[in-house]
Amino acid sequence: MSTNLLSSSAAIGFGGVVQEYLWNWENQQLRVVYETLGKGSPLLLLPSFSTVSTRLEMGELARLLAPHFQVVAIDWPGFGESSRPSLNYRPEIYQQFLEDFVKAIFNTPITAIAAGHAASYVLQLAVKQAAFSRIILLAPTWRGPLPTMGASQQIAGIVRELVRSPILGQALYKLNTTQSFLSFMYRRHVFTDAAKITPSFIEKKWHTTQQPGARFASAAFVTGNLDAVHQQVDFLELVQSLTVPLMVVIGESSPPKSREEMNALVALPGVRSVVIPGSLGLHEEYPAVVLEVVQDFLFSSEN
User: Fold this and answer.
1) Residue range 216-238: average pLDDT?
2) pTM above the 0.85 mark?
3) Contacts by 155-159, CB closer than 8 A, 24 or more apart
């Protein structure tokens, strides 16, 4: 495993130093792209899993944090500019990747800010070892879209295999990543200000979805195959097992089922929480508000 510097022309970032981390999974080398900006204590930004997942959704928040921290934002394997091979994407891959990446890049416990589905992976690693000094979860989720809608594991598995298939799968994936559909989804449960969902914004998101191999990890997420836990009690047990400070940021317009899960999380003793405008994409839609409400927690000397 090694890291290499990428030229600015080779990657589209948010103004930081773009590098690749070469990571091996079951004898296959994956290229994982990450970006570093600022100086100071290290802080890891983990974007949410989604069809349009990319470190750029954390870009503005990274720029706001950079005067105070050395911010590192990643593209998860299978997403963004990282390698997108046709793996059977499942939690074990991301659990091992996060553990290896943190160990390779940082030499001290770090602050982690994780959005959406990244929450479970951060919590699992934090319980397993002293990787993090404090954790902020942004609109945390643990259950993928199809399971949230009530689909059984069997139905979700059939859908996943259909999308993975060569010809029909490509067609199904394209139907679910048209710019009109992406715009609909953003309006429905990602952003709350429709004025921010511009044609150019959606075009950039669409471009992310059209990279070679993009459908494999996306299908795994949508069908629940990236759910690191499968019951609310397991998710809450992770939080109860933490030994580091935790803060949760919730969007006041979060989808009802997701909001119920977030409410159960912040009801636990010792969890700091705040509700701000936005929904599941609050970190991208309202980055300045996110920084405003977490800065006291970030700069606190409490451990």
Assistant:
1) 94
2) yes
3) 156/223, 156/224, 156/225, 157/223, 159/219, 159/222, 159/223
